[in-house]
Design a protein that fits this description.
The chain is an alpha/beta fold and 318 residues long. 32% of the residues lie in helices and 24% in strands. It contains nine helices and 15 strands. The protein is globular and about 50 Å long. The two termini are 31 Å apart. It binds zinc ion. Zinc ion (ZN) binds next to loops.
Length: 318
């Protein structure tokens, strides 16, 4: 992505870049099919239920919506709603490191939601669950939109190792969302899985949700394999709020061992169509061997997600 091109040229460039990177149609997305049954990833399922994923480990996944708790036990092949056994989990599949479960769970879980725990006799009322920790109460009123760049038919750049940009963007975006939610912020993802979303729609999601902050996650690529480092973008005539958000994220990312190229200005459509402070983060270069390896590394992804989150919180609490 070039910072010197105009809005129109950058749009054309993006279209060409996407077309140039187009891989043969793949079905590695959020809805693979096992034995004819539609599969969905757990973040997508939680979103469809109006819930957020509050815990994920190898064997246990929990969704919450403040009233209800859904617990999925993978080893035991069981699903619980509000501590009541619901049904067997059934077939599962891991796609892009995300657990996929059968889509029919959505209706089964929905039919059991909304039952307040106080209906039960006191003797068998399950221990009330501690509300999610909200250590920063001044954060809880804020809405952050996290945009995982590309997706679906648009893979973005292809790394020197062959994996596609859209997967790294989503991996890091999901981790950012989880950390922010744990801190009590409202987070809206433009996509939770491998789906294609128009650029304007990504910005519209922020505008419809009256977002306080919009952060788009991308990974860079260049014909010159020596190019490296993360870069932050705000729009050309971006507000001082956008600039201070970008600077706050820049300061935190500079403490990771990915090099920094600082804050630049470019009229990417996700930046020009959003009405709140908006930043596009290029995590590093997929065309650089060292960074392409780093960006696929789970620990490095977590480190970057934490740095971006810390920057967002620095900006809100400044
Ligand atoms: Zn990109």
């Amino acid at each position: 992505m070039r910072k010197t091109v105009s809005l129109i040229l950058s749009s054309i460039f993006v279209i060409f870049a996407a077309a140039g990177c187009q891989q043969p149609a793949q079905r590695t997305g959020g809805k693979p099919s096992l034995a004819g049954e539609e599969m969905v990833n757990v973040y997508y399922l939680a979103g469809k239920l109006g819930m957020t994923v509050s815990l994920t480990s190898k064997d246990k996944i929990t969704f919450n919506d403040g009233i209800n708790t859904v617990t999925i036990l993978t080893k035991q092949d069981q699903v619980f709603v509000n501590n009541d056994y619901l049904s067997p989990l059934g077939k599962t599949k891991v796609v892009d490191d995300l657990l996929n479960v059968r889509g029919s769970l959505e209706d089964e879980i929905k039919s059991k939601l909304g039952k307040p725990a106080i209906e039960k006799p006191a003797s068998i009322v399950p221990k009330p669950q501690k509300p999610a920790k909200k250590p920063f109460t001044n954060l809880s009123g804020k809405t952050v939109v996290i945009d995982a760049g590309h997706g679906g038919k648009d893979p973005g750049a292809t790394s020197t190792y062959g994996y596609e940009e859209k997967t790294v963007n989503l991996d890091v975006a999901l981790q950012i969302a989880q950390i922010l939610r744990d801190k009590g912020l409202k987070v809206v993802m433009t996509r939770n899985n491998d789906e294609f979303i128009e650029l304007e729609e990504r910005a519209d999601i922020a505008n419809r949700n009256w977002a306080d902050i919009f952060v788009s996650i991308h990974s860079d690529s260049s014909a010159k394999s020596s190019n490296k480092g993360f870069t932050l973008y705000i729009r050309r005539n971006g507000s001082s709020a956008s600039a201070s958000l970008a600077n706050a994220i820049d300061r935190r990312m500079a403490k990771t061992d990915i090099n920094g190229n600082g804050v630049s200005r470019a009229d990417y459509r996700v930046l020009t169509h959003t009405s709140c402070p908006a930043v596009l983060v290029e995590l590093g270069y997929l065309s650089n061997y060292w960074e392409a390896k780093q960006l696929k590394n789970k620990d490095k992804q977590r480190q970057l997600a934490q740095a971006i989150t810390d920057g967002i919180i620095d900006y809100i609490t400044k």
